[in-house]
Amino acid sequence: MSDVIRLLPDSVANQIAAGEVIQRPASVIKELVENSIDAGATSVTIILKDAGRTLIQVIDDGCGMSDTDARLAFERHATSKIRKADDLFALSTMGFRGEALASIAAIAQVDLRTMLKGESIGTRLLINGSKVESQEPEACAPGSNLMVKNLFFNVPARRKFLKKDSVELSNIMREFERLALVNIGVDFTLISNDVTLHSLRRASLKQRISDLFGKSVGRQLIPVDTDTSIVRLNGFIGLPENARKRNPLQYFMVNGRNMRHPYFHKAILQCYDRLIPADEQPNYFINLNVDPETIDVNIHPTKNEIKFENEQAIWQILTAAVRESLGRFNAAPAIDFDVEDAPDIPAFVPDGGATHEVELDIDYNPFAPAPRATKSSSLSDFSTGAASVPSSGTISSHTARRPAANFQDWEKLYDDFLKKRDDGYASMVESKVNLGESELDMETEGPVSATLQLKNSYILTPSREGLMVIDQHRAHKRILYESYLAKARENGFVCQNTMFPEVLELSAAQNAILTDIAPSLEGLGFNIAPLGDNSWNVTGIPSILKGSNPRDTLLAMIDSVSEGGEELASSLTERLALSMARSSAIRRGQALGADEMDKLISDLFRLPAPARTPEGKAVFTIINLDDIAKLLD
Predict the structure, then answer these.
(1) Tens of pLDDT along 241-273?
(2) Whole-angstrom Cα distance, residue 539 to residue 528?
(3) Contact 404/363 with Cβ under 8 angstroms?
(4) Confidence (pTM)
(5) What is the 3-state secondary structure (H, E, C) of 473-542?
(6) Mode of pairing for the β-strands spanning 250-254 and 284-289
(7) Over the stretch 63-122, which tens digit does the pLDDT of each residue have?
(8) If residue 265 lies in a helix (H) or strand (E), which one and from where to where?
(9) Beta carbons within 8 Å of 215's beta carbon, 6+ residues apart
């Protein structure tokens, strides 16, 4: 039998690596800009054509490369960032793996012009799908000018599944925001189809936040700053009243690098517990500086996941710092010491001594029935609020000495209470087990008590097969989606003017998407107009949205387009119906009454397809009787 294991050609290996490193145009920009930062650039310009599909060009004023380095940089695992394995534990650069340029060259056409500072001539290198076509001297500016053309031209499946330009541009904008936030000492310019979307000058972190997300966001932030032997922590957090239901601005940075860290994110959310609603999240921009030897960034090719040696200690420091800032800037609720209408509390006089005019009754039982009062005295007590307490502040003898009850009477009362409670539980369980599914019809007379709510999120109800568990949020979303869609198809969306115009402030990424879908939204009943500076004026909404928040609905629409592109629905009408259903559906954690739960179940099972949400997620499940019997064995 012949040997079957062989080494892959470099071009194939690079395409495999590109599947992890280069996922979309935004990934190319991340890798190229990080290389520019590592090269010492103080100014970076990004030029796009067709949201990076046709052209991604990154120009920097960094140190540049020699002709040999320029050629070697596109070889796999060629890097200037590390020389030995120990260097992995003391990284101070963004890149180090030596995979990005080789991966980019494998799935695109690359044109590089670069020159070392102080030299008079540079070099131009052309690569087409990992194949070097030419390299020759050329006069150019110091630094690097790298063009990536026709991304995924030789991988049709990957190119086919790129989203439309507005979605890809939105992802590029989000990646640009992360890069700009972490490199506040660098000038950034972003140009798309000859339109300048951002022109940022080096500034403080707070100014950079305002430049990226608007001055209103900058005014909503309070500083966080602490310094310990483990971590130097600084940045900004949002005030509780400015928490968002959608698109919270949440950024973690460590040693000049962006990262995702669910554990630290949970620490910040815990600080806002009881300060904001459960369905809202705060904005935060937190920068951590730690010893490079205490973190590991070599976990994933994108280098966004980082492990910390002192994770638990940093969690405690982060929690303390955020809570301290919330308290210092009066973001946390203070104790209300308002004494208006409060009862008088006598002051303690040390030299006064304690006196009382009555003798304590050792047989006194607080649970014994009080003497029956006359009707007039009872009304007097309620009207005055203190008729039973003499003005002298002492307890009268007839009030203090109540008839003593036999202690056995109290034990009998308690036994009767337990027996009635247990009998009530038994009858409730029996009634729910014996109640058939047919009795869930809302057309029947009288209230239906076959439903229970679990954790204010799930509805439990018996069925023929066993116990049905319904997700209340998904069920209501399915109901609203069908309702909105039916109204839209029957009558169309009629615009209803709002009483007061509402200004919608967006990030540049959100603004790019809304600009793209604005004509379609107007045809569906929205009346919106751009105000400039990524702001929109909302003066009309579809009539079926009466009672809903137009801001939340529009943000939900933007999220839907950004996350799913063309795959969410076959038309914008369906996408609008889905977005409105998402924003209007009852939330998990919302308590429902018995009638509300019964109506929800009734409306759900009148639908032709109640089992799945429009996104394909399960609405309910059934725990059959056999499974229940096994659990009780």
Answers:
(1) 888 887 789 999 998 888 888 899 999 999 998
(2) 6
(3) yes
(4) 0.62
(5) HHHHHHHHHHHHHHHHHHHCCCEEEEEEEEEEECCHHHHHHHHHHHHHHHHCCCEEEEEECCEEEEEEEE
(6) parallel
(7) 999 988 888 888 866 565 544 455 445 545 555 455 788 889 888 999 999 999 888 899
(8) helix 262-271
(9) none
